[in-house]
């Protein structure tokens, strides 16, 4: 779980140091911009922007009940972030599995991708799709029960 926070913490620390350096030189505008930009990047790359993850077993059970896709993802993945942001509020309708927190989810992704942990991998009706486009995922979500 802690490895999911390494990149966001590094971004926040870099923003704080950059802002402190700019403020020490008397450039408060640059300090504010540096702090704001790197804080936003830290939040965007943190697990906070994703719906609460569930285990792979729970996601599959829920998907069997409601027909909604399962998304295997990991924090810091720009493609996962792109998918999450493109789906907007509808992202909460999907079942999200953080492969860094769930070894079974990571194993499912490796099985689907031939040994790699390529994410996002979306499971629709038991069939995996590696790094699908957001429009396609939205379409699959619309087809669910």
Could you explain how this protein is built, in words?
By secondary structure, the chain is α+β, with helices and mostly antiparallel strands. It has helices at residues 6-24, 28-44, 56-66, 78-87, 103-113, 134-143, and strands at residues 70-73, 95-98, 121-124, 127-130. The protein has two domains: 2-48; 50-143, Glutaredoxin (3-Layer(aba) Sandwich), CATH 3.40.30.10. It is 54% helix and 11% strand. Strand 1, helix 4 (78-87) and strand 2 form a beta-alpha-beta unit. The longest helix is centred in the N-terminal third of the chain and has 19 residues, at 6-24. The radius of gyration is 18 Å and the shape is elongated. The relative contact order is 0.15. This is Glutaredoxin domain-containing protein. Residues 70-127 form the Glutaredoxin domain.
Map the helices and strands.
Blueprint: H1 6-24, H2 28-44, H3 56-66, E1 70-73, H4 78-87, E2 95-98, H5 103-113, E3 121-124, E4 127-130, H6 134-143
Parallel strand pairs: 1-2
Antiparallel strand pairs: 1-3, 3-4
Helix pairs in contact: 1-2, 4-6
């Amino acid at each position: 779980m802690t490895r999911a926070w390494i990149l966001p913490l590094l971004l926040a620390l870099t923003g704080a140091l950059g802002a402190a350096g700019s403020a020490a030189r008397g450039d408060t505008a640059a300090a504010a911009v540096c702090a704001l930009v790197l804080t936003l990047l830290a939040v965007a790359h943190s697990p906070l922007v994703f719906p609460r993850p569930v285990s792979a077993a729970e996601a599959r059970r829920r998907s069997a009940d409601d027909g909604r896709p399962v998304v295997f993802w990991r924090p810091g993945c720009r493609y996962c972030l792109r998918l999450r942001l493109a789906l907007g509020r509808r992202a909460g309708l999907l079942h999200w599995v953080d492969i860094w927190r769930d070894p079974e989810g990571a194993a499912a992704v490796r099985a689907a991708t031939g040994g790699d942990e390529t994410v996002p991998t979306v499971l629709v009706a038991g069939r995996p799709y590696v790094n699908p486009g957001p429009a396609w995922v939205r379409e699959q979500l619309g087809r669910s029960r």
